[in-house]
Amino acid sequence: MEMKIDFPGGQRVDAHYKGFTIRTDQPESEDGEDSAPSPFDLFLASLGTCTGYYVLSFCRKRSLDIRGIELTLATTRDEEKHMLSEISIDVRLPHDFPERYIAAVEKAASQCTVKKHLFDPPSIKIEAHRGEERDDG
Fold first, then answer.
1. pTM score, two decimals?
2. For residues 134 and 137, what is the distance between their CA atoms, to the nearest angstrom?
């Protein structure tokens, strides 16, 4: 898997992958234009949508109605460390959702691949090097 990252202007940083462009920007308070989510917003969205995918898959495999199911992701910030101290995801099920599946939905949601990578993170290797000289003439 390979993803290309470029800088289209201002504080924007875009990722290109599988024919998609994933745009990011910074808020105006960080000299951005607030024209797209920040990279950290996308990180949180990735966690929430991955969790949602596992809920969706669980329900579809059991032919359970997904109408009315909603997930809400909320964060708690440790101001001293300038880091999140907790991420909570509330899975709201319709009032008529079968009681016998509620705990199983929680278990399915907890199988999110993004979440699993947070608990057993990969090493991240960053290298910088100069490219070949280009002839722009």
1. 0.88
2. 9
Per-residue pLDDT, 135? 77
Contact, 11 vs 32, CB < 8 A? yes
Would you identify the CATH topology of the domain 38-119? Answer: GMP Synthetase; Chain A, domain 3 (3.30.300)
DSSP β-ladder status, 4-9 and 12-17: antiparallel
Q: Please measure the distance between the N-terminal and C-terminal CA atoms of the chain and give it in whole angstroms.
A: 34
Residue 60 sits at the vertex; the CA angle it makes with 110 and 74, to the nearest 5 degrees, is 35
76: exposed, middle or buried (C-beta count within 10 Å: 0-12, 13-18, 19+)? exposed
Model confidence pLDDT, tens digit, residues 96-109: 999 999 999 999 99
CA–CA distances in Å: residue 25 to residues 19, 46, 106? 20, 16, 33
- Per-domain residue ranges for the chain? 1-36, 38-119
Q: Tokens standing for 37?
A: 């989510």
The answer to whether 36 touches 23, Cβ cutoff 8 Å, is yes
Kindly give the parts of the chain with pLDDT less than 70. Answer: 137
Cross-strand bridge partners of residue 4: 16
